[in-house]
Here is the input.
Amino acid sequence: MTRINEHYRKLGAGYLFPEIARRVGEFGAANPDATIIRLGIGDITLPLAPAIVEALRTAADEMGRETGVHGYGPENGYDFLIEAICEHDYEARGVGIAANEVFVSDGSKQDSGNIQEIFGAECRIAVTDPCYPVYVDTNVMAGRTQNARPDGTYEGILYLPATEANDFAPPPPEQPADLVYLCSPNNPTGSAASRANLTAWVSWARQHGSVLIFDAAYDAFIQDDDLPHSIYEIDGARECAIEMRSYSKRAGFTGLRCAYTVVPRQLEGTTSEGDRVCLADLWSRRQATKFNSVPYLVQRAAAAVYSPDGRKQTAEQVAHYMRNAALLREGLQAAGFVVFGGEHAPYVWMRTPGGMSSWDCFGELLSKAHVVGTPGSGFGASGEGYIRISAFNSRENVEEAVARIRRVFSG
Ligand SMILES: *Cc1c(COP(=O)(O)O)cnc(C)c1O
Here is the structure.
């Protein structure tokens, strides 16, 4: 029989979200009258902004005309989108990113999972713990780890605990690491890294010749203009960092699929012989071979995010989710919970009461308030003792969830 990639067998039993769905389904079946409010999964709930729908319609009409049809697009994205990215996401914040450093893709999940392919099998990986599960699982699949330990961590990965003591923004470690995944604003903790924290990371990475993979999927949710939106706002980051951004959360593209990765031309890796190699060239080669560009329609829709109407409308959507986050923060605090995050990210990170486990607290919230959160332990061992509550929902559902939680848990 054909041999499988046995590294896959090291992966934890199931992905977190199917397990949550199973438990919620079981509860729903046993309690058919309960109206369950889902604040678990991180998916958008508002419809697409009108400017984006308009761009899709216009592009669809264009594709239906002989003179307007578009086949395979340029591998790294159409110029109209890349130019808008360079201007609005970077120049506007004083950062110079060139068009040939931007690689448009169909998602940051893919990009953050695929990027490890251009690095050596022996590279030592570091992640902040808890983190977006894709960073760890894709390195497990690639064979960079041993088997999982009982607490779900892997031998071979350096875990950097994100705790209340370090404001959920771990400082660089003493040990070396080749590739470090950072995410700010953070999923799941909802915290945003300070300029000082990112400066420390950039200087550490340059000193050790390490590469930072900076996932900025939630940058549009930052409320304080002094906080960095991009790692490239930090001097020296062009020599040590790759950045990823997505339209999924900022503009409701989870179902449309568009994102991009920036790999600066200065960023280099090394061969075993010590030859220096441009990482942007490797990533470009990888994408050209394994990826065939984002649909024209979708790239037109992404470009519409930067039009005056698109910016205004998507900013209103972000404001809606952030108002939800504020209501969750205040409501949970009033119910006696200790909460973090929710100020620059659509997630509130809640400490479980009385040292309860994440899954027990998940069960309590579900059975008593009929509210679904995400157990923090599902994002890493250091997430144990926390629950992630998502602000992606209607105002009505968030208000109702807060009212129920207060009724059930206060006092
Ligand atoms: C949602 C999310 C993304 C976005 O993924 P897409 O594939 O672009 O939808 C990336 N990183 C993190 C941490 C996320 O939570």
